[in-house]
Amino acid sequence: MDLFRSFYIIINFDYCNMLIKPGIIFAVLVLGCLGLPTPDTDFSQFFDHVNPDRVDRIVGGSIAKMHDYPHLVAMVVGATFTGLVCGGSIITQRTVLTAAHCIEAVFSSGSLNSNLRLRAGSNFFNQDGVLYPVSHNKTHEDYVRSIIKNDVGLLYTTTNIIFNALVQPIPLDFEYVGGNIRARAVGWGRTVVSIYLPIPSFILDNDKDYF
Q1: Average pLDDT for residues 186-208, to the nearest whole number?
Q2: Where does the Peptidase S1 domain lie (predicted)?
Q3: Which domains does the chain have, with CATH numbers?
Q4: Position 35 confidence tier, pLDDT thresholds 50, 70, 90
Q5: Is the pLDDT of residue 80 over 80?
Q6: Is residue 119 classed exposed, middle or buried when 0-12, 13-18 and 19+ CB atoms within 10 A define those classes?
């Protein structure tokens, strides 16, 4: 049954009182309830990458200002030199949301890279702010690398992330978001495509239409 099909039944109750038996009304109500989605519904089909061989990337943008994105953290590794892995968003004082493929990049032999840290409170991935060690991770159980399906995961810090003016959890919106919605991509990236440049150490933001 199509999850998004709605059932609309218009009943003239004055007429029903004379002609429709209570048993039939009950049956109609049961059939209507069957059209509702259940908590076990798998919506991940809508997030498949139909062409995983594409190499599209977001480039350009402008340098973000301090205080603009206090939820953003940098996943970094390295004991001597800091290497950027990915970005992430603070959800709680111990939880950061990121992509599953980012976790995969620092996960081997059953454990995370021991030098993995999350830098919070800075527009630079390699300086300022506070570094938080990561205790463990949780990757979506149905993550499929080949088609980048269910590409989401969580990182858990060993200590609480201290909130202040520069460090805050991201506001969560539980409403459904459809297509053709303007979105803002925030993170560390390149400003020009097809030209080798060092990864900028500062946060860039980019306003574009993503579908």
Answers
A1: 57
A2: 58-191
A3: 1-41 (no CATH), 66-174 (2.40.10.10)
A4: very low
A5: no
A6: buried
